[in-house]
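Predict both folds.
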Amino acid sequence: MATDVMIQANGLTKRFGVVRALDKVNFEVKRGEVVGFLGPNGAGKSTTMRILTCFISPSTGSATVNSHDVFDNPLEVRRSIGYLPQRAPLYTDMTVWEYLKFAAEIRGLDDSTFKKRLKKVVEVCGLAQSLGKDISTLSHGYRQRVGLGQALIHDPPILILDEPTSDLDPNEKAEVLRYIKEIGKDRTILLSTHNLGEVEEACARAIIVSKGRVVADGPLDDIRGKTGRVRYVVTIDEQRAEAGNKPPAAAQAQEALQRLGGVKTVRELPTDEKAHKFELSGAQDSDIRAEIYRLAVAKGWTLLELRRDAQSLDAVFRDLTRGDEKLDRGANWSAADAADEEEEDDKSSDDEDDDSDEDDEEEEAADAQSKGKS
């Protein structure tokens, strides 16, 4: 039966020894969506994608891609997806044409179908001038284009892209994002990245993970409002002030702004101007611009900028991935930390673990035996 859900994860959990890389991850990606899969380094993004592309299996939970189970029907899953890992696995002694032909043959395309698909891939990925070149002679940006080409050559309905712009220069990043938006018009795309600007440019929806858990999932505007805050940007001239008033030191200005009613946080922002620039956050249902203005008048500050807008995705990302006591360690999560957390989780979920399937029980028994030997 046809369904609009192209990717579905149900309770995905993955353990590597004592480290729980994924912890009961649930999400759906529907037909035609371009979804950003966000998280700090070590959050579980690549692990999730390797499960969805059948490179590894989950410890518990299930996942389906194009209605095919990744464990029960991995070949159909692979036929349904185009996958670009973080480092495109290219054979550098081949020419671009030879490599794309090789990828097409692996996918079972005949010569006539390959020629039709090659024409479209070359057009979309901008490879017309590179088909006869050895891959070893290409820049990193052009190698990523070739990687996208092999992911597209069999015309899959689903693309899974794991940090496709990593290590690219700004011009190359812009080109790859343009290609992603172009090919995303008639495909489902799951785009893993920790670059928030890329998500805002290419995606309408995002899933944010931290420490192997989903902490936000929805349209970007909804995620920006998830913390219930709005942001204010205030810029104060550092050199000019009204007669009889000294320009404020950054610390003094920040302290004065922090004392205003309704201000939750104040953070100084870098600026090239001879000025102090601050980002403030306040409650979503209030507007404190009048209070900020009156403070500036009272202090004799010269306001260069005062604006109120939605909480930035960057600020929400920081709140969601560092605000919780168990999530604020980010990418510096050590094996010792993982062991402590695993022990705490196991103590708090004994009853729930009793209901887990036989495979999970066998894996936990193997883990326990391994720990005993060590």
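Second protein follows, with its predicted structure tokens after the sequence.
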Amino acid sequence: MRYAEVARTSDAVAAARGRKAKMAALAELLQMAAPDERAIVARHLAGECGHKVGVGYALVSELADVAPAAEPTLTVGEVDARLAALAALAGPGSKQARRDGVAALLATATATEAAFLRALLVGEVRQGALAALVVEAAAVASEVPLATVRTAYMLAGELGAVVAAALDGGGAALGAFTLTLFRPVLPMLAQTADDPAAALAALGGRAAFDHKLDGFRVQVHKDGAAVRAYSRLGYDVTSSVPEVIAAIAALPAERLIVDGEALGHDDDGRPLPFQDTMRRKAADGGPLAVVLFDALRIDDTVLLDAPASERWARLDAVAGPLVVPRLVTDDATAAARFYADALAAGHEGVVAKALDAPYAAGTRGAAWLKIKKVRRLDLVVLAAEWGSGRRKGWLSNLHLGARDGAGWAMLGKTFKGLTDETLRWQTEALLAREVARDGHVVQVRPELVVEIEFNDVQRSARYPSGLALRHARVVRYRDDKRAVDADAIEAVWAIARADGVVPE
């Protein structure tokens, strides 16, 4: 299959307004693909490259002027082979070789293919075909019940393999995807709630509340002396977390699959900011602790479908000292006090959990509700980047700044929280304030004030201010405020000091 068909389908999916139309376009292409192409096509249309190619915005921007090919010649298999070759580059000269390889790939692609590949390389494919929709399309294309395909994807954690199996062998082939040691499954995720009382009401009046830890999500598998750890995305991180491996190896169960967080602590026992935990995860970092909050398997008992209360009881029995602090209550006052204590201890907040819910791997369901401290600042838009995929043709990724004397201190970027209506409006408003362009970045007069919601502040070597916002998203534009009314960098430093990110 020509790769142009993948790029064309991506554009068609981006243009389609209804979910059924998007799914139909995806299903048609999956059926057209050859058996050895289906896994690749599925990954790419979901925005997954399938290889860790080590290519970022800087390189893609640097190659913005590469002239595209006039006619499509690339095949799906050739693109995947080239991406695999890029991922294999290492050692002296690999940086230049990677640049040359990306340039050659883009030069062989048509304009439509090149636009899609640029977005794929930097994780910016946003045409509305996320993995969940591709799973639905695979069910339609293979005529296999959606629940069967979805369950296989939850257990396999690898979209391409599941889609290929569904189309090649139907439901019988998908039966091979079961909970298996050393094959990580997708983690269960949480929706949000405003406060503990709201969470209690949503969960039927009685629930468990866990400390929400700002660490590194790990799924750890044990079979006798063999122990391996996997990241949230399913990557093997065993060599990076030796303390986690040792802690799980010491547990009395012969076989385990457990879900938890690895996190660092300071000398006083308080949890470190996320970026410091990630630094300690590296080979030259300091010690990490592991905190467990769920069990998927203990010895020969698979617990995915067991009620949460049963899973936790079994986990407590084999790993009590490692289990997250947890309160089971029907008292909103007690839940609020537990939440306040979690914040005071340096954690993000709490996660409220239904007592009877199964472990729904790979889903962000209503059985888990996270309640976190959320901060807001009024910042000024300093620049914006042209979007890709669904946001193609609109100025999207906003560069955010706080007042800093007579100038501005950049605190990061965000495209989150922007509706289509907002994208259209801000593109017009920002172009009216354009002062310069640098590749795909449009510099603007610092006039528009935008309210930004974020979780916390972290140190940053990227920005001169030394700080950046984490998980920033747009709440609204503040047409009632002028740039001079925006928050100052001193307010951001105050948050960083209060959270222990920087010393007092």
